[in-house]
Amino acid sequence: MIRKTLCLLLALLALTIPALAEETDNAPIDPRVQPAVAISFDDGPSEFTQQVLDVLAENDCHATFFMVGTSMDKMPEMVKAVYDAGNEVGLHTWRHNDLTQMEANAVVRNLELCQNIVTAQTGTTAKWLRPPYGRVGPSAYGACRALGMYIATWSLDSRDWETQNAEKIYKEVMGQLRNGDIILFHDTHAPTVEALRKILPEIKARGFQILTVDQLMSFREKLRSDTHYYHLDLSKLKPQE
Ligand SMILES: [Zn+2]
Question: Distance between CA 34 and CA 38 in Å, rounded?
């Protein structure tokens, strides 16, 4: 009897697994129904970006890459590769600038230089800005309002650039993971790639969706340019469909 039930369960499981896999390929699910996090990478593109793209593809997920203008200028083909693989391209200023030290019109010019490369490589413009050092103020808000952009910081710092150790990066992320998190990584070091090989399957095994910043934030009731978002606030979502 137990054996029969087990067989039946296994057969049911075999039937439902492909259906679930298909679902994750489609539109993101409301985080009230299935928890979700956004994964983001700062400071690229670099020699490690392609390896990050490979790990994302192996795990059937997408992320947001907040790129530095001067690095995009050196590796424009990586901007295209990131976008063509289904990921989101965001901006991280032209020279990793501290935006609190600049006037709003200088920030606008800075971001426009970045957008020129994004448009040339992808035919689109970036919607999200990640301010270097997480520093934002009136000039960043003003520039984003003028350009129709939004600002995303993070709620979970993998501290990858600091520890440069795959095991520590893994523990930092998996020890704190919460629904609505925006997770910060950097696609500029090998230990991050190694850590992702463990982290991405583990996040999925815990039942979370892995989304881009724009996908995660699309569940929010209303987006404004004169503030910054460090996570998806689950008390401020659009009414459930
Ligand atoms: Zn940075």
Answer: 13
